[in-house]
Write a structure and sequence with these properties.
Elements (H helix, E strand, L loop, with lengths): L4 E5 L4 E2 H13 L3 E5 L8 E8 L7 E9 L14 E4 L4 H5 L3 H12 L4 E4 L3 H7 L6 E2 L6 H6 L3 E2 L8 E3 L2 E4 L5 H12 L6
Parallel strand pairs: 1-3, 1-6, 2-4, 6-7, 7-11, 8-9
Antiparallel strand pairs: 4-5, 10-11
């Protein structure tokens, strides 16, 4: 299967692991990943946040790394990409307010191209209107967004992921092995051992 060209849309305070791990893993297996942020260009950085599960009622948040973007948001044509990745963190809560982000996401939904969203990433899918009739995992606090958008929120263990056609979703970064493996399957990526 030829390498895919994948678009990753993020914003400041994207979750550190949910951004860096898929970017690096998908690049490692030979795919091209373009990471973009509204209002920023290639070479700019976004701040990340590390969300951890330490026994509180919700996740804790600590400063993460600065993550360098390798493409310019204003130059993106979603038709040039084979798949979309939406990491979680706090970025999704405000990038979903950007009309161009929603237009890009709708392109992937309307053309049935593979979409991987994790944690708060489904907030962007909900705002774009692409969850209608779809089953999606998400961070539990995002479950109501999935349901209100016409999807079905699926509560699964934090280490699991779920697939509904072209859509691969998971609750949080502990699901990376399952989420990325299932996304690779949807992409048609074969890894020989």
């Amino acid at each position: 299967m030829p390498a895919k060209k994948i678009l990753m849309i993020i914003g400041d305070y994207t979750e550190d692991y949910e951004t860096m791990v898929p970017f690096q893993a998908l690049t490692m297996v030979g795919h091209t990943v373009h990471a973009v942020c509204p209002g920023k260009k290639a070479g700019d950085s976004v701040r990340t946040a590390i969300h951890d599960f330490e026994g509180d009622q919700t996740y804790s948040e600590k400063p993460g790394h600065n993550f360098a973007l390798n493409a310019t948001f204003d130059d993106i044509n979603p038709a040039d990409y084979d798949a979309l990745v939406l990491p979680g963190g706090r970025g999704p809560e405000y990038i979903r307010l950007n009309a161009r982000v929603l237009e890009m996401v709708r392109h992937f939904g309307d053309t049935n191209k593979p979409i991987a969203a994790i944690c708060h990433g489904p907030q962007v899918l909900a705002a774009a209107g692409v969850l209608k009739g779809k089953t999606s995992a998400a961070y539990p606090a995002v479950g109501p967004d999935v349901n209100i958008a016409g999807g079905t929120y699926k509560e699964i263990p934090v280490t699991d992921a779920t697939v509904d056609g072209n859509l691969v979703t998971a609750p949080a970064w502990p699901a990376h092995p399952a989420w990325l493996s299932q996304f690779l399957d949807v992409l048609g990526t074969k890894i020989e051992l």
